[in-house]
Amino acid sequence: MQNPVDIVLEKSGIRELNPVQKLALENGLLDKKAFVVSAPTASGKTLIAEIAMLKTVLEERKKAVYIVPLRALANEKYEEFKEKYGSFGIKIGISIGDYDQTDPWLANYDIIVVTSEKLDSLLRHGITWAHRIGLIIADEVHLIDSPERGPTLEVVLTRFKKSYNPKILALSATINNYKELAEWLDAEAVESDYRPVKLYRGVCLGNMVSFYPERFVKLDSDEPVKALVEDTLKKGKQVLFFISTRRNAESLAEKLGNVVREHVRKEKKELEKTGKQVLQALEKPTRQCEKLFHCICNGTAFHHAGLINEQRKIVESAFKDGKIKVIVATPTLAAGINLPAWRVVIRDTKRFGGFGMDYIPVLEIHQMMGRAGRPKYDKEGEAILIAKTEKEAEFLWENYIEGEPERVSSKLGVEPVLRTHVLALIASETIRTKQELMEFFSETFYAYQFRNLAELERTIGKVIELLKGFGFVKGETGEFVSAGSLGNSELVATKTGKRVSELYIDPLTANTLIKRMKRIEEEGSNDIGILYSVSNTIEMFPLLPVRKSDIEKINELLNKYEDFLPEKPPNPWDIEYEDYLKGIKTAFLFKEWIEEASEEEILERFGVTPGELRTRLMNIDWLLYSGYELGLLLNLRKTIREMKKIRIRVKYGVKEELLPLVRLRGIGRVRARMLYNNGITSIEKLRKIPLESLEKLTGKALAKQIKEQVE
């Protein structure tokens, strides 16, 4: 059998390992129980993981699990691993979807790519093959610092360390305290500043760019954004801009089209073809689609979460193929898929946060800079920050060019995070007493960093009391557990508590949902009552903002629908009132959707782009499913019947009358409405209509497909 290193080199098309990869092997990558690699973006860390995975699978006959922070990144890694190693008989799997599934087929796979949330979900469902995992790879482990994703990654790694003891390989960007992470994992640590493509990092002020390592570039004008694009195009290269907001990204992409247009005359037809793909990604294009189409025709594009996945992939593919010369993106792209450019320009180093505008952390700026320089294409890359004044230029240089990335720190020790993970640990029977619970958390990165567990114990005590009050946790004898002291009294999840944990929703959301659903079961409601029940929840945050111009409309809606809502409006001077109004507005977004408002109408009325709409629809679908499952458990028959119906309507975005038609393959909301308006209102009528008549409405291919389904 070939050596894993030789296989990886051969399949990667390279002759020898680079300095980072050699350093890892020399320091015991294949022998140590745990290993941390801290190195810049594009330094070849993934190849290190591939060597470790092949050794685990081919020599140790165990599974390797590759954890990534984002679904898009999971898909990219899955395709890459499958293409490279599938021919060796290695079975590559991916699991990033439904959080209420155990995905039993994964038991037969050797390398499994997951997000940390999905792996957490699999553990909550009690997968039977966890003991067969020989290697856990935590890619982008520095994101343990993220308030959103960090705690889940931390808990997952702690569970594996404590219960299954696989090898752990953690891959990190360059951070100050990588050794602290390694000490927590009891791991060997290596750090390197090596990068296969030399990176020049600089600050632009006026028409001059100063770089480190030292060199200077003089631009043709004092308009740095335009001049940097023109300079890039003259060199036959591409440029990636990072801008703080979606609106500004779109605006800049449009403006730069005037600069790029003259350089892409020969590619005009290809660009128009790509642009048309963007338009066709939705059944009915929105003005955002039209805007992106015109940008692409001029050789530019914008890229942000407001686009649907298919549109983002089209843009990424065209950029990789060299057709699109300029992408203007929001910073989310920096942590996402591998999309490098010769030059990266960071125009905005501030963004809006909880305390107003503030500078972006050094680590995030370095992640953006890391996209500069394309391995296999470029020998060097440039990352440029834009300053407006000399004073700002000095700050940017000191902070981002010479400055060190921040330390990463655990975000686990807060109540909203703990209530979810405490319930999961109890429900999965990973722990059985409060003492065992504290022993578990004493092995987390949080405990390693902050040492003093007294405050954590107090917070966990409050969480147990909360879960007790919700009816999600009780003692073995049926008595609720007191959280007042450590003790060895048993912690047992109730049937409802276990189901809440499996459904992967916040216990606070679950408790609120149950209360609202019980009220609906007793008093009755309509679609808006059910939509509000799931809209005003933590998982739907941020709720839609309520502006002064919205107040009159919302009050009209409240007057009309108040009797159908499971919660009465709080007093206007109460702190909850603003969230209540936001919840109402968010619920009416979904109400408009199931009344067949188009994406363009949703954008016009609510300012919600198609990409954001898809994300919100995915979230509400999960909450409606969770509500249905909890209602089933609690025997809320009337409520779950309505929830099931509304969930289908939300999926397709249709009125109830179209439900029979949209379930057919090939018929979306637009075609279903067209058929209905032409008198074809049921499956029976579809059976009876002559094929020739149907072809006039839908075209030959679709008519044939429809007939095959109904006859």
Number of strands: 19
* Overall outline: globular
The value of Rg in angstroms is: 27 Å
Proportion of helical residues: 40-55%
Terminal-residue CA separation: 55 Å
Quick structural summary:
With 711 residues, the chain is an alpha/beta fold. Strand 9 (208-212) and strand 10 form a beta hairpin.
Report on this structure.
- The chain is of the alpha/beta class and about 700 residues long.
- It is built from 31 helices and 19 strands.
What are the defining features of this structure?
711 residues; alpha/beta; 31 helices; 13% strand
Question: What's the topology here?
Answer:
Elements: H1 4-12, H2 19-26, E1 34-38, H3 45-59, E2 63-68, H4 71-85, E3 92-95, E4 111-115, H5 116-124, E5 133-138, H6 150-164, E6 167-172, H7 178-185, E7 188-191, E8 198-205, E9 208-212, E10 215-218, H8 224-234, E11 239-242, H9 246-260, H10 268-280, H11 287-297, E12 300-303, H12 309-320, E13 326-329, E14 343-346, E15 350-353, E16 356-359, H13 362-369, E17 380-387, H14 390-401, H15 415-427, H16 434-441, H17 445-450, H18 454-470, E18 473-474, E19 492-493, H19 495-503, H20 507-523, H21 527-535, H22 548-561, H23 577-594, H24 599-606, H25 610-633, H26 637-652, H27 659-662, H28 669-677, H29 683-688, H30 691-698, H31 700-710
Parallel strand pairs: 1-6, 1-7, 2-4, 2-5, 3-4, 5-6, 8-17, 11-13, 11-14, 12-13, 14-17
Antiparallel strand pairs: 8-9, 9-10, 15-16, 18-19
